[in-house]
Amino acid sequence: MSRIILTDLTEVGILTFFFLENAKVCKKIRYTGKHPNFLLSLKKFLAANNLRLNNLTALVLLEGRGSFSGVRQAVANLNIIHLFKKIDIFGLDVRKFSSWEEILLAVQRESTKKHNWLKPIYSGEPNITYPQNKKN
């Protein structure tokens, strides 16, 4: 039986967690805000659904769109969880799929393989702005 948490960061300002059991969505929670805190939101999601990291078979990240910093933060956090909890992790580039059903099939297919470190897939270069010089 596969028990997976899928994280969707593909919309800026929205962090969505899905709990999948045998490739079927059982739970879904969306967190919104300018910069949703990944670890705090994951902790709330686990607690709200009576889930434990130790009982999961994989953690999946939907990437390829969304915030550059959000993807970077999620990848770093998931790699740390993988390091300490030995939970399989992998990412999927959402730009390669045309429907939610295709994504779920890819999750099911990839969850049977062994994965290691997660590498970020960005939608583009970071959008870095410099503060305007203000004269006092």
Could you explain the architecture of this structure?
The chain is of the alpha/beta class. Helix content is about 30%, strand content about 30%. The chain has a five-stranded mixed beta sheet, sandwiched between helices. Strand 2 and strand 3 (about 25-30) form a beta hairpin.
The total tally of domains equals 1
The appropriate CATH architecture is 2-Layer Sandwich
What would the CATH topology be? Answer: Nucleotidyltransferase, domain 5
Distance between the termini: 64 Å
| Proportion of helical residues | 25-40%
CATH class: Alpha Beta
Could you give a quick summary of the protein structure above?
With about 140 residues, the chain is of the alpha/beta class. The chain has helices at about 40-50, 70-85, 100-110, and strands at about 5-10, 15-20, 25-30, 60-65, 90-95.
Name its key features.
136 residues, alpha/beta, Nucleotidyltransferase, domain 5, 5-stranded mixed β-sheet, 5 strands, 28% strand, globular
How is this fold's topology laid out?
Blueprint: E1 3-11, E2 14-21, E3 24-32, H1 38-48, E4 58-63, H2 68-85, E5 88-93, H3 100-110
